[in-house]
Each structure stands twice: as structure tokens, then as C-alpha cells.
Amino acid sequence: MSDIVDDQPFGEWLKEQRSQKNISLEEIAAVTKVHIAQLKMIEEDKWAQLPASAFVRGFLICYATHVGINEEEVLRRYKLVMGKNLRTIESALPAGYKGVHSASKPKVRVASTPNFQKAPGANQVNFTETPLMTPKRMGIIGVVIFLLIFLVVLISLGKKKETTEPETVPVEQTQSTEAVGPEAPAEVDASNVEANAPAPAPKHTLELIGVEESWVIVKNGDAASNGFSLKPKERRSFDISPRAQLVLSNAGALEIKWNGVLYESPGFRGDVKRLKLPDQLDTLKEKKYVAPRKVIEPRSTPAVAPIEPPAAPTLPGALPGSLPGQAPAPQLGLPGAPPAAAQ
To answer: Which one of 70, 90, 110 terminates a domain?
Structure first.
């Protein structure tokens, strides 16, 4: 890396590098999020109007990254420019002025803590430190330790007495047993034995009804589990005591009948489910019996015989074919002649 040639200003050198890449300040400001006014101040070498040096270094790193300049070269030139400006300021100050120091050799002034013992009235204050272990504190600690040891000893003696204490047998009882002989076993009341005996484990009946083919594992109490394939319309019964554990590979492919009560499928098709019966019996839904619908056949209407009209009454002297209630037609002929025959 070469030093600055021909004393070219740092800002002008940055602007020249940017112009060669044909990059505008607006583009750098949009990408790096650095205000365009601060970028102009950097290219115009207006360092007094810029923020602290740490911020300016960040601006320069973003500038160099976007333009494609070596970051180390940019920071080196910036350091030389700032050192030159500092030497210019020091040369303008009067001789013997020590307020500004060189950046290469910073000087730090360490503030000394004030001595409060030399303050007015400090002689009246007693600065003697109290020791941590005073006789009073040591006595209290000793008493506490003694009480703890005494308590531990009492507890250990009580436990030892409980473990080593033999059973005492009355003298009269031993003498009577030696003289008479072994005691006859006492009669045991069967009713008390039955009352004190543990209650037998409840027994249940389990029946699995297949709707579709599925794999089922049934574990009865502490016995080994039993796995099998349940076919459609297949029924399998088990005697359960005291409880059963079921593993269903297809919870919607079977129905459960527990103690004669039929329950719906415990899940949907394809669900893998574990059941503990009768603990989880309340999670099952009882299946209600629905009677099949009766098909009502239409009523057959009986055949009706046709109704014949009643015969019309014939009046005396009426001609055949005359209507009822019509007067008979007059007969033509000679008086005393017999009536003409019907045609």
C-alpha cells in the first residue's frame, strides 16, 4: 500500500474511485442507509461537521464495501488524514499547551480517590474495625454446636434401643408350657377369617365385534399380551380380571361389548388408540338399538261386482218397451175383437 500521492485529499480520492465505478451518491445512500449529506461531507473533507470518529469509520467501511475499494486502504488513508489534522491543530496552539495529545501516544489521567481521613472533623470519627469473631459470637456458636451434637446422640441411641431390645416373655407362661407341653392350636373363627380376607378381584366380560379387519392387542391384568387379527363380523370374548388394556390399530373398525353393554367404536378409522377398561369406560359411547323400519304394503282393494240396474215394473196393458209411468198405447181394432198379438 502506497502513501497518499501528491497530497491528494482523502475525499477527492474517494470521489474519484466512485466516479470510475460509475456509482452515484444516491445509490450508496440507499444501499448503506448512510445519509447522503454525510457522504458529501466525507468527499468534501468536512470532518468537523461529521459525528465521532467511530461512526465515520463505519460510514467508510460501508462506502468501501459498496464501491469495491479495499477497506484497509480506506481506513489507513483516513487515519493519516486525521493524524495530519491533529498535528495542524497542535502547531497552531501556543507553546506549552498540554490540553491536546497526539493520537499515537494517548495520555490518560487517573483520578486519585480522596482521603476522607484528612477531611475537616475526620479526627473525631473512630475508624477502628470490629473483629469478626468476638468472644460473644464464639460463645453463641459453641452453644449451638453443642446442642446439635446432643440432639444427634439422642436420636442415635433411640434407634439403637429399638433394634436391640429383645422380646420379654413372662416367667409363668414359660413354666406352664414346659410342664404341660406344647399348646394346642387355638380355634380360628371362620367368619372372622372370611371377613378379614381380601376381597376377590372383580371379573368382567369383554367381547370385541369386528366391523372391518384390524389388529388388536389384549392384555388381561398382569398376564402376557395377546395380539390377533379381528375379521369383519368376527366376535371374540374374554374374561377380564381385574382390568384390561387394549391396543387398537384401527379404532373405527370394531365395537366393544363390556359386561353385556354394547358400545360404539372408540375412535375413527385409521386411529391408533390405547384403552384401559374399566378405567376409561366413561369415554365410550353406549350404542343404542334402533329397530328396523317396517315396510307398509299398500292395501289391496277387493273386487266390486258391477251393480245391475233394477228391472222396470210393467203396468197392466202396457206394451213391451214402454217406459214406466207411461200410459198404455190405445189398441186399434174392432169392438169385441181379440187383442192383436205382439209383434
So the answer is: 90
Cis peptide before 278 (omega within 30 of 0): yes
- Whether 341 maps to a domain, the answer reads no
- 4, 84 in Cβ contact below 8 A? no
User: Considering the chain, what is the average pLDDT of its residues?
Assistant: 74
- Helix residue ranges per DSSP H, the chain: 10-20, 25-32, 36-43, 53-67, 71-92, 135-164, 171-180, 190-196
Burial class (CB in 10 A: 0-12, 13-18, 19+), 229: exposed
51 is in which domain, residue-wise? Answer: 5-90
- Among the residue ranges 17-31, 99-113, 188-202, the one predicted with the least confidence is 99-113
Q: Is residue 64 part of a domain?
A: yes
Residue 17 lies in a domain: yes
Whole-prediction pTM value? Answer: 0.31
> Confidence band (pLDDT; 50, 70, 90) for 118?
low
Number of domains in the chain: 2
Looking up cell 468472644, which residue turns up?
Answer: 135
